[in-house]
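Hey,
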Amino acid sequence: MPGDLPEYYFRIRENGAVLFKVDTENRQRRIELDEIATINLKNGNIKPHGDHVLTARERALIKDWAAARSAELARRDIDDIHRAVDHMNLTAQWAQSRASDEELDEVTDALLLAMHDLRSVLIRRKADRLLKAGKAAE
């Protein structure tokens, strides 16, 4: 039926989620969310809530959710980087064609430092990859 609710609901948090069991089978016929676990994606911890003992099915559900969520976050990260490249290009165009001297004074030092930092990191990481590839080829 189209109005059917899922059995479980993940409330996204900064480092993971809280897993709730959706309960619609109660006297008041209200939707209740019973917290059953907290998931931390960064360290992999899964903490059952209160006295709840996670079933094998719930643990599998959490594992599948964590894998899908991690993949989604990784896709978002690389998409953010592609957008940053676009913004850098738009910033260069703005600085060349539309920025006033006052606007440039406001942002130039911060942009130069951020770009220097990024350049240093990228060069160091590329050198590391080239050295690693060279050693692997030997």
